[in-house]
Amino acid sequence: MAEIESGLSIGDVAERTGMSVHALRFNERECLFANPVRRGLNGYRVYGEQDIEWLELCSSLRASGMPLAGIRRYAELVRQGGGNEEERLALLRQHRERVTAQIGDLNKCLDLIRWKVGVYEERLAQGHRRRPLDRGKPVGRWRSALDPGRTYEMWRVPGSTAADAPSGIGPPCLGPSSR
């Protein structure tokens, strides 16, 4: 029992991981730990270094978009022990594919932002100032995903051309033709 008493308290773990005490209790209640959380002689939760490492893994999986059900399933497989590595691998590969797709979409958005920043930096460096009503020419329209009744337009800055924009960039909601 001396080993259990020398572990980390829930407050210690909260401080080390940046998770709230409430979040730690939630993770235990939702069966997201690889091993049952131990209890000290006083009935308080006692954590070890392996628990911290596991929480960091779960936090990374969650931050990258893995649903709680997926993390719960992964934890369940780990608790079952060896023999189910193929299922663990399949679960992680599937998540990797989702993350890779998200990164691709974010890179397209970042390319668009970089291009727009460059356009404005170049225009300002040349001393161009846009008059308030000089909107240029509309180059694309799209509907809001959150408010289907709302339509947005994207305008080309006067003096720029479609050739100035990198091809195929734009957030997934805009598509490449709506720069």
Describe the fold and architecture.
The longest helix is centred in the middle third of the chain and has 41 residues, at 85-125. This protein has two domains: 2-81, Multidrug-efflux Transporter Regulator, Chain: A, Domain 2 (Orthogonal Bundle); 108-164, no CATH class. The chain has helices spanning 2-5, 10-17, 21-29, 49-63, 68-80, 85-125; strands spanning 38-39, 45-46, 137-143, 151-156. Strand 3 and strand 4 (151-156) form a beta hairpin. The protein has 179 residues and is mostly helical.
Low-pLDDT parts are 167-179
CATH hierarchy, class of the largest domain? Mainly Alpha
- Quick one: biggest sheet? 2 strands, antiparallel
Radius of gyration: 25 Å
Order of helices and strands: HHHEEHHHEE
Q: What is the beta-strand fraction?
A: 5-15%
- Cα(first) to Cα(last) distance is 65 Å
Q: What would you call the shape?
A: elongated
Structural class category: mainly alpha
- Mean pLDDT across the residues is 83
Instruction: Work out the helicity level.
Output: 40-55%
